[in-house]
Task: inverse folding
């Protein structure tokens, strides 16, 4: 068998690319659909899934992403190869309607081989996900930040584009089978292993119409997605915003983040909405209470990579029932430095907490930071997941803020 194409036949390199990628694409659909269905169960607030399901979902997604990235590079090689080769012309090019449809589908297939994996990859790179790509490359992409809105848009694009690909593959297979069984021509046979030459018709469709038709189909699919609202990410998390608080110190800027370890991989997230009421005085200049702090945290403002929805569910933060977490503490100067000594309440569970705080005050500006590790089980978070390798018990909480002293009359 010859490696290169001739004007009358496909060589084995084209055929190997074709069938290897075809097999991989069909596998990708099975993996994507099954993994997404499982992820839907995990995300559904009213379904409690087993550790086993969570483990399988992660493995299926990692396989999906790893194979998908391989398809992306293979597709580029394949396209470069196709450009370098003579292309055997259609055997029914004189049937203008069918031939134009066939070529439109070929353009959709080639384009999808790049666009579908790319959109999935951007989605992966924009999220702090828990299912890694197993290649030693590509966890992050240049020009792609961790950004929930970009993540939402690229996930929607991946979803829309994979349906265009699915439709194209279906039409493509139906066409191949029609050639074989209805028309009885050599179209399918010349793509199969072995040497098959076939004489194309003299008349062939032009390129312009099929390319235009493929572009119109993509535009229509994206337009339908935009019309359905999938391409407009939610402006902010749901849940009621916390009321601003008045206090001696006013927080100007800050961040409150958490890190969990899911399936051995760290996933970090942050709360967009929290308030702090802070009283603190540098005097007395010795040990003892210097002030107090009350922090309220809007649970629904958490973004936690691809598991944000899951985190809100009844077995985790139960955000609907317990929308606010509260940390209330005295600020006590001890031998080891400043300590926030109080309680942290998440859901309906309150636990005593002692957290070292670093604080520097310059004039009327204070910079403070602290971190804390809690055991999620103390707060009844994720009690359905008792396996540490699925979701570690320890959760780290980090915060830092800059506050200004309220003017004293
Ligand atoms: C040709 C390659 C690919 C095909 C055919 C494909 C196909 C699919 C399909 C059918 C789904 C399920 C959509 C649904 O029903 O919700 C899906 C979801 C997904 N794919 Fe791909 N995919 C490909 C490449 C990739 C790559 C390279 C990545 C990442 C590196 C990726 C990441 C994902 C993710 C994260 C989801 C879940 C989306 C969500 O939860 O909204 N995919 N893919
Ligand atoms: C599932 C993913 C598949 C993809 C992405 C795909 C993609 C493609 C592409 C891009 C071409 C054009 C090759 C060229 O430049 O001439 C092609 C040709 C072809 N494909 Fe597929 N294919 C897939 C599956 C299949 C399947 C399952 C069949 C058989 C039932 C099939 C049968 C054919 C045949 C017969 C041709 C040659 C058409 C001709 O000679 O005019 N393909 N395929």
Result:
């Amino acid at each position: 068998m010859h490696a290169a194409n001739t004007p009358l036949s496909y060589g084995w390199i084209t055929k190997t690319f074709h069938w290897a990628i075809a097999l991989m694409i069909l596998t990708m659909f099975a993996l994507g659909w099954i993994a997404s269905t499982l992820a839907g169960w995990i995300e559904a607030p009213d379904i409690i899934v087993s550790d086993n399901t969570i483990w399988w979902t992660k493995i299926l997604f990692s396989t999906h992403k790893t194979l998908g990235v391989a398809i992306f590079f293979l597709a580029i090689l394949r396209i470069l190869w196709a450009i370098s080769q003579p292309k055997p012309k259609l055997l029914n090019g004189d049937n203008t309607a069918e031939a134009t449809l066939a070529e439109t589908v070929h353009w959709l297939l080639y384009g999808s081989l790049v666009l579908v994996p790319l959109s999935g990859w951007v989605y992966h790179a924009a999220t702090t996900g828990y299912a890694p790509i197993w290649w030693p490359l590509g966890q992050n992409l240049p020009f792609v930040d961790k950004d929930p809105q970009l993540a939402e848009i690229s996930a929607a694009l991946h979803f829309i584009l994979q349906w265009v690909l699915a439709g194209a593959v279906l039409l493509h297979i139906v066409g191949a089978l029609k050639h074989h069984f209805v028309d009885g021509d050599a179209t399918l046979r010349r793509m199969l292993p072995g040497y098959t030459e076939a004489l194309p018709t003299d008349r062939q469709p032009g390129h312009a119409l099929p390319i235009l038709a493929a572009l119109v189909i993509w535009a229509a699919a994206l337009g339908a997605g935009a019309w359905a609202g999938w391409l407009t990410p939610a402006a902010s998390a749901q849940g009621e915003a916390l009321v601003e608080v008045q206090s001696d110190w006013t927080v100007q800027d800050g961040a409150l983040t958490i890190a969990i370890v899911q399936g051995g991989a760290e996933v970090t997230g942050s709360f967009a909405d929290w308030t702090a009421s802070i009283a603190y005085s540098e005097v007395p200049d010795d040990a003892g209470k210097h002030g107090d702090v009350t922090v309220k945290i809007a649970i629904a403002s958490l973004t936690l990579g691809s598991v944000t929805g899951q985190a809100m569910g009844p077995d985790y933060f139960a955000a609907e029932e317990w929308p606010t977490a509260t940390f209330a503490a005295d600020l006590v100067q001890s031998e080891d430095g400043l300590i926030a000594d109080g309680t942290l309440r998440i859901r309906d569970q309150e636990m005593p907490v002692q957290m070292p705080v670093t604080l520097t005050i310059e004039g009327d500006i204070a910079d403070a930071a602290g971190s804390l590790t809690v055991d999620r089980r103390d707060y009844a978070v994720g009690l359905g997941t008792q396996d540490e390798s699925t979701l570690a018990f320890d959760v780290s909480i980090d915060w830092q803020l800059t506050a200004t002293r309220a003017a004293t009359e």
